[in-house]
Amino acid sequence: MARRDPHSYTDLDQGEVTHLNLDVLVDFEHHCLAGTATLTLKSPVSGPIDLDTRDLTIDRIATADDQEVAWTLAPTESFMGAKLTVELPPGTDRFSIHYRTAREASALQWLEPAQTAGKTHPYLFSQCQPIHARSMVPIQDSPRVRFGYDARITVPAPLTAVMSAAPGDRRAAPKPDQAVFQFSMPQPIPAYLLALAVGNLEARELGPRSRVYAEPEMIESAAWEFADVDKMLLAAEELFSPYRWERFDFLVMPPSFPYGGMENPRLTFLTPTLLAGDRSLVNVLAHELAHSWTGNLVTNATMNDFWLNEGFTVWAERRILERLADEEAVALASAIGYNGLLGEIERFGEDSPLTHLKTDLSGQDPDEVYSVVPYEKGYLFVALLEQTVGRERFAQFIRDYIERFGFTSITTEEFEAFVEQNLPGTLQKVGAEQWIRAPGIPSNSPRFESSALNQTQTLAADWSTGARPEAAVAQKWSPELWQIYLQGLPKQIAVEDCALLDETFHLSGSKNAEILSCWLKIAAASAYEPTFDRIDKFLGSMGRMKFVKPLFKTLQGGATTQALARRIFAKYADSYHPIARKGLEQILGL
Ligand code: BES
Ligand code: ZN
Fold first, then answer.
1. What does DSSP say about strands 32-53 and 17-27: parallel, antiparallel, or unpaired?
2. Whose CA is closest to atom 2 on ligand 1?
3. Domains and CATH numbers, the chain
4. Which residues approach ligand 1 with their CB closer than 6 A?
5. What's the pLDDT tens digit per position in 123-150?
6. Atom of ligand 1 nearest to the CA of 286
7. Rounded to an integer, what is the distance from CA 528 to the centroid of its chain?
């Protein structure tokens, strides 16, 4: 038995899926996908093959010549789901599973019309990373396995379906009130990059290879916010290598989307909280674009190597940022990230193995241990390697790395072997072992400096000795400096000071969700009542976990705000994504 991924029942000795043919009806009435998944294997096999499923109802399994095949569905084992064992007759290289998804499928969120911008049509979207694809389709749900796919998606006629594939074409359906969308994804992807969204969608062309999709009510502002996407794409190609996915389209999601962005190939998903109106949050788009190389071409073998995906992508995102803006912008972004990393180390504890780059998550639900450690500690490590060998050599190294491992999945150990081969002695020199297999931030971590950064950090650090920002100066701060300033303040301040800050700088009125989130956390910890309505409104306006989780945690932590946390959660629980809701219930002890 060769089961190498602690989060999947995949055993590659039994066979390997190389293609998926999906034919499903999107049933908004019953909140389910129902239809057939046809799996093609690399070579003909015989005997059992284990697939991942979660909460799926299996109706029938048959070979290509429609011979019924025996199967067993094991009991559900918490976050792993239920192992589906299919007994394949000799010489099988293709079989079809007739199935339907459950109402509570963890990959899917079904929105009522009231939860959308337009308020008239329902909406469905998927989020498969890290291990939710199995609740949408029976599959080898391990990033070791890559497959291309074709999909035929039947939806209610007024709606549009989009996928992480070539743009679908709308076809006539068997019934007049339905439409069929046919997709094809020629590039092989791991299951976690499968993605589907169905809603009332409009599109705007933004460049020769890019268009944005959104509900009509949001499309104008989305097109404006992300107008520079083609510049990003060109910068990234210069840095890394030609773009291998043909198109880079993206979809601005309904507010309950639980992440900032998701790098679904050929169709990135983005939270609408990026629509600040001043293009100040477009780094998230750069990040998801960067995954087109680091993550989607070179993929982590398991969630234990997740830092390879995210650490490299944060580094790549900041290289793109440097091209589009300047070094100062990179220093500020790195400082914001570093503050987040310190917070996470405090949350997990200084010695926690969850602060290693290489983790051992066997027996653990990856959603429960999600943190910025792989992102920001990973970034620091990649930046250190770059600093150590020099910009030019590292630029070549990255190209070689992408060329060598493109369209494969690798472990941290394979990465280390490649570094040793191409940049001999470097691992030793930077103390890679300490970075990869020990907790915390090693003392040789790179530092990022800029005078504006230093001044702002000092001003914040001096808060407790009476330093306050001068109105005329702070009014000119960029959104990044505001974030750095607010991150640097004590977690809790006097209510008079809350009043002063908010009255002078109108923080509660900020359109930048990052600033708002930092500010409302301080206001909540300080039990500053005049912001309670704003906090309620913010928590009801979106479900991005990066914002809702820390704010609920802060409310929950204060004697006077705990009841407020419960009240607000009760009000909005139904509108949060199932993954976010689960996390919040844990925070609130429900
Ligand atoms: N791939 C991640 C999102 C993700 C990770 C979803 C793990 C589920 C499990 C995506 O690329 C990401 O990192 N998004 C960040 C934005 C980024 C700028 C750090 C986010 O959602 O905040
Ligand atoms: Zn990412």
1. antiparallel
2. 262
3. 17-198 (2.60.40.1730), 203-437 (1.10.390.10), 451-588 (1.25.40.320)
4. 129-130, 259-263, 284, 287-288, 291, 310, 370, 375, 546
5. 999 999 999 999 999 999 999 999 999 9
6. 18
7. 32
